[in-house]
Amino acid sequence: MERFENLLEEKLVPNRVLRKGEVVRGRIVKIDDRTAYIDVGYKVEAIMPREELPPQAKEGDEVKGILVKFSGGVPVLSFQRYLKERLYGFLKSAQEKGKFVEGRVEEILDDAYVVNISGLKAILPKSEARQGLRKNSRVVAKIKELSDTKEGLKIVLTEKDFIELIKKRKKERILKQLKVGDVIEGRVIKIDPEKGITLLIKNVLRAFLPKEELSWGRDKNPYNYTEVGERLKVKVKRIPKDGEFIFVSLRELKP
């Protein structure tokens, strides 16, 4: 009987002590329009603002948060503070070492994307992003700016290095498959009447068409053969080892 009374007393008077700043774990028992109520084994349920909840969190899920304050004796938790303290070191290291981080597009604004990185929100300006990103698109980026503000972590991303990496790999694949004598098509991006025509092959590989390779005849004026923006078929003449430019011929396609 005495043992039963002791157990009952433990149930009725929880002896857990919570301290500001500690990580608290609990189970979500209710979510209303503004607040999540979390059973943390304390004498009252802890609360967390709904906008602080992890993505897709629902009643019954386990959640962690930093105890930021007591409001009328009720513990108030912050998931974003927990994430910030857990991930700040990782993000700082990634920024200093120039490493890529991954996330998903969560929201599309007029001039930027909101990217979710393990629950933290980051900003990817559209000027720093690939074209065609949509909601839930995978983002691979470097951290351009990381600062700790009163509102939380400010994270600004850039995909420019990733874009260059994609181009480099695509260019390497093209060069690996390309052979002297192949006929390829490119977009004219520059015309120099003294030297020749520069083309862009599949948006990554530059090809140079010397004016001597325009025709077997006397007309060597590049402007008489094409204009900037047009597409032109040419034959591969030479592929230098550095792969920066390949050299092509137009006249070798003509009888």
TrEMBL record:
One of its GO terms (molecular function) is mRNA binding. GO terms for biological process: translation. Pfam families: S1. GO terms for cellular component: cytosolic small ribosomal subunit. Gene3D superfamilies: Nucleic acid-binding proteins (2.40.50.140). Keywords: Ribonucleoprotein, Ribosomal protein. InterPro entries: NA-bd_OB-fold, Ribos_protein_bS1-like, Ribosomal_protein_S1-like, S1_domain. Residues 21-80, 98-160, 181-251 form the S1 motif domain. PROSITE patterns: S1. Belongs to the bacterial ribosomal protein bS1 family. This is S1 RNA-binding domain-containing protein. The lineage of its organism: Bacteria, Pseudomonadati, Aquificota, Aquificia, Aquificales.
